[in-house]
Amino acid sequence: MHVSPRMAFGGLTVVSLGLLGAGLALGEWFRLQPCYWCNFQRLIYLVLAFVGLCGVLKPAWAKSWSLLAAAVAAGGVFSAGKQSWMQFAPEEAIECGFGDPTLVERVVDWLGNVWPSMFMVTGLCKEKDWVFLGLSLANWSALCFLSLAVFFVWFHRATRADGLRSR
To answer: What's the N-to-C CA distance of the chain in angstroms?
Structure first.
């Protein structure tokens, strides 16, 4: 199966923005309150969309962009996995926003000041407010990030060292 770099990275941009939009829509429809890890995942989806846009504009660097996309998506797996663990074992997790702020909390707080409608924290990380087919929104996000990471690892390996032709 041949996937051109522009198709792969255009797809990454569309999928990332679509997942971000779907999360925002679900939040509005079901009155979900975003937490630190939710908002950090929003940031990761935006970074993935940016990487995708870079890959569309500079397809000759497909190997580099695909490696970066896989690494960023792996970071998304970690962040969604961390939130999923907090929801699964709330008695063992330390709630975000209590105690000394972590790097994630500082970044999200700063973004909340810059773009409050996107990044303002109003919820708790341990709460599982929405469940579909037995999985929370954090669980679904982890699966989406994992799918993107696996695809871009495959795409990186499938891309010739001299680059694919852009179509």
So the answer is: 15
